[in-house]
Amino acid sequence: MTIVPNETYHIYNQGNNGEKLFYGDEDYIIFLKLCRKYISPNCDILAYCLMPNHFHFLIHTNENSARTRQVGHLNLCELSNGFRLLQSTYAQYINNRENRTGSLFRQKIKAKSLDSGDENYGWIAFNYIHLNPLKAGLVEDLDYWKFSSFLDYAGVRSGTLCNKELAYELLTVDTKNFIKDTYSEFSEEKIKKIF
C-alpha cells in the first residue's frame, strides 16, 4: 500500500473467499479495540463500517502514516504495518477461537486515494461506508447497525474512534442535515471512483 501524507483514503478488505470475519458482537468490539491500538496512532479515522464479511475505513493520513520501517524483509509504511498487525492479530484471535487455520482476510488490502479531481469523493465514500448495512439488507434503518461510525455522527453515541472535527472540515459534513444527507444517492459512476 503506497501512502502519501495529508490525503484521504478509502481502505477496505474482506474475508478470504468472502468468508465471515465477525461471528458475534464481541468480535466487532475486539476488532475496533485493535483498530484503536494499531490504526489510530498512524492516521485520523474519519469513518468506518464493519460488515459480517468485510470492512471499510475512511482515513486521513499524516506524516507518521507514510513513515517507513523494516518488517522482516519488507519495507512498510506505518499505516500498512498497522493494518498488517490489525489483520494478523484479529485472525489469530478468530482462528484460535473457531478452531480454524489459514487466512482469514483476503491477502491484499485495498487503499484508494480520494483527493484527485473536482468531485468530493471523500464525502461520497463517507456516505457509501455508512449506507453499507442498509444496502446489504442487514438493517432497515442505520440506527440499528452498531458497528459503524454513523451513530457517532448522528449524535446517538459518543464514540471517540473517529476524528469528527477533521471529517467536518475535510468533507464539508453538514452537521444539521447529516442524517438526511447520508441517505443521498450517488451515481454508480461516482461510486466506482471510490474503489
Automatic annotation (TrEMBL):
Lineage: superkingdom: Bacteria
GO biological process: DNA transposition
A Pfam family matched in the record: Y1_Tnp
GO function term, MF aspect, one: transposase activity
Transposase IS200-like domain ranges (all copies): 4-132
Classification via InterPro entries: Transposase_17, Transposase_17_sf
SMART domains: Y1_Tnp
SUPFAM superfamilies in UniProt: Transposase IS200-like
Segments passing through the bilayer: none
Family matches, as PANTHER family: TRANSPOSASE IS200-LIKE DOMAIN-CONTAINING PROTEIN, TRANSPOSASE, Y1_TNP DOMAIN-CONTAINING
Annotated protein name in UniProt: Transposase
